[in-house]
Amino acid sequence: MAANCSINLSSVFNIPTRSYSHRLSTRHAHPVLVFSVKTEEKLPAVKSPKEKSAANGAGSQSPDFKSTPTATLPSENPINADSSAISTPSRPLPLAAVLCNAVDDLINNFIDNPLRPSVDPRIVLAGNFAPAQETAPVACPKVEGTLPACVDGIYIRNGPNPRYVPRGGHHLFDGDGMLHAVRIKDGRATFCSRFVRTHKFVQEEMAGGPVVPNVFSGFYSLGAAMARGALLTARVALGLFNPSNGAGLANTSLLYFNRKLMALGESDLPYVMKVTQAGDIDTVGRYDFDGKLFMGMTAHPKIDPETKELFAFRYGPIPPFLNYFRVSPAGEKEPDVGILSMLQPSFIHDFAISKQYAIFPDTQIVVNPMDMIVGGGSPIGCDTAKVPRLGVIQRYATDESAMKWFEVPGFNFFHSLNAWDEGDEIVLIAANSYPVEHVLERTHLVHSTVEKVRKI
Ligand SMILES: [Fe+2]
């Protein structure tokens, strides 16, 4: 690292400035390579809520998510109705659960209503974004040509997909993690889709409906936040939900490290998954790196292809707001490096590593409960008065004493592409998203440009 720690802003420029819409083309912000798989007729078709509604003779253009009676939700759930893979408890709900669900409906209809378009399930879960059901392993018919017998592997992706029709608001990031996989072996291909059996998922299965408030859509105003917080507290007190094993969604990405396949979501620990010989996908369980990982881990860790080490971080609302760590190729996690020079929690979705450094964004998306209390907005919002920064720390640092921060006005990156060292310079390639104030609420208005930042 050069002794001069200023950043040359004139070197911040767009490289081939191919702007592209950041609107979700799949269920998550990450574009993924999707196989075109033509399946056998016995594969049940995925129906959108609109198609379901039409088939049921409702005659409505949009499904009426909010009026679904809670106690009968499972049987009316368009996700559940066609699913042969998920069982729903047939026993009647306990009275306490029925009462809590009724209070939930009151909150959704009278405190947090009307819904904003960005979290209205009639809009965000319509058409191509409609919930998809599980699909047990099914053989893919041969359309043309042959698969080499020597190919033995799997293409697998992760994305949010709500298990239950939400009672209230739903942001696209709020769905339960679902894996879709194409297993290729012995010249044949098998397709399968399975939910990640997270602790939240299992508990809501037992409850027969949503229990955990949606993080991105459930706390937009002080009234909604207080009401939902009180309701969740009541559910815990009544034994209807046990928060001791997290409430994450594992819906963001997949990691293959140390011979483990993990489904990741940054608000919780990783979930280890297993692909069976038949191409099915099982959830093994929550993984804490032998008791050394707490709370959560980024969904975008980095593996050094040469050293096979894993580099990652976790962030949250309690100081230190950022904790950086690495894991040996054998899976032994090193202690967290707490970054106390971050004075305010901000949304750190991704980072980058070079051979010598780890580079973190300190973006204008911040956690500020006062926005919710005073302004009636979300506790996660945009601070346009803040100047975004990049933090650089040696990647084998054991403390943050040598960490440097650089102001980068107008540069908010939520996904990196690469970083490398050039002598005393560090080069970062990342997607800059703007206008940043629309990143969470109006994603259809957000654009990203791939930009290069060079620190001299
Ligand atoms: Fe991401």
Summarize the structure in words.
Residues 58-86 have a biased composition (Polar residues). One of its GO terms (biological process) is carotene catabolic process. Residues 45-86 are annotated as: Disordered. Belongs to the carotenoid oxygenase family. The chain is α+β, with helices and mostly antiparallel strands. The protein folds into 2 domains: 1-26 and 300-456; 29-47 and 92-251 and 253-299, no CATH class. The protein has 8 helices and 23 strands. Helix 4 packs antiparallel against helix 7 (222-237). The N and C termini lie close together (8 Å). The relative contact order is 0.13. Bound molecules: fe (ii) ion. Fe (ii) ion binds at residues 29-30, 252, 300, 349, 415.
- Overall, the morphology is globular
Number of strands: 23
Low-confidence stretches: 1-87
Give the overall average pLDDT: 79
User: Percent of residues in beta strands?
Assistant: 25-35%
| Count of alpha and pi helical runs | 8
Structural class: alpha+beta
Overall helicity: 10-25%
Distance between the termini: 8 Å
Give Rg in angstroms. 23 Å
Biggest beta sheet summary? 5 strands, antiparallel
Overall structural domain count: 2
Bound molecules: fe (ii) ion
Summarize the structure.
With 456 residues, this protein is α+β, with helices and mostly antiparallel strands. The chain is 15% helix and 27% strand.
